Amino acid sequence: MPDPSSLETLRAAVDTVGPATDGRPGAVELGAHEHVVTMLELGLPGIVDMVAALLNAYAADVRAGAAFIDLDAGERDQVLRAMSADDSQDIRDAVDAIIVFGFGAMFSEWSGYDRTSRALKAPSTWAAVGFHGPVHGHPDYRTDA
To answer: What's the whole-model pTM score?
Structure first.
């Protein structure tokens, strides 16, 4: 299980890439940070603590002595941009994972699944982007119609 401070750091990173806008919930309000942590830990147990350490190391370059969670939104953005431009593919992959799993949670059925009742409903983000959900075929495209 990741360290609680690492979880807060990842939560802040997910909030940075998917903030709430125009009255719509952001990634953290949708619980996307939980999905990011789960997916990272499934791939490589312990990696959340490492990614948090990287975020904190880059944060110190933006503001001396500061941890990632101590930075404001603009400074956090600087950290993620610096990591995205790093020469190391591993550093870039860490940021990519935050983005991919964060947005994946926001815009997939993951955010519409109620884990308590095990019910699946269309996520609110689908309506916000004009997606009406999966379509299981169109009669106009059938040859037998």
So the answer is: 0.83
